[in-house]
Specification:
By secondary structure, the chain is an alpha+beta fold. The chain has 5 helices and 3 strands, in the order ααβααββα. The chain has helices spanning 3-10, 13-22, 29-34, 40-52, 75-112, and strands at residues 27-28, 56-61, 64-69. It has a 3-stranded antiparallel β-sheet. A hairpin with a 2-residue loop joins strand 2 and strand 3 (64-69). The termini are far apart.
């Protein structure tokens, strides 16, 4: 799954709350809905979006469907964030190195005069 799909799914605050709740362990829809400002049908739709993004999965236990975080579901998002951060840090390191080299050069010019 691509990070774009997961990030789009996480763009909704209700879906982020669902992900945060599921960190504590698998839950049925009714339990999730009890902690949210939306009803069970809306929670089911949010869960479908999260499942389509590869972030949650469900399994049937008796007559209940339990939803849980998908193992590795956030990995594409983490990889994307790391790539962004690495790019920013690389650019910052290059900027610092260039400024430091420039300061050394102008410092030696001052000493020569």
């Amino acid at each position: 799954m691509h990070a774009d799909v997961a990030l789009d799914a996480l763009g909704d605050p209700t879906r982020r709350r669902i992900i945060e709740t599921l960190r504590e362990g698998p839950r049925p829809v009714g339990e999730l809905a009890a902690d949210l400002p939306v009803g069970r049908p809306a929670v089911s739709k949010h869960l479908r979006v999260l499942a389509d993004a590869g972030l949650v999965e469900h399994r049937s236990v008796g007559t209940r469907n339990l939803y849980a975080l998908a193992p590795g579901g956030l990995a594409p998002v983490q990889e994307w964030l790391v790539a962004q951060w690495d790019g920013v840090l690389g650019a910052f390191a290059a900027h610092v190195a260039a400024n430091h080299a420039g300061e050394r050069a102008s410092g030696s010019d001052r000493r020569a005069s």
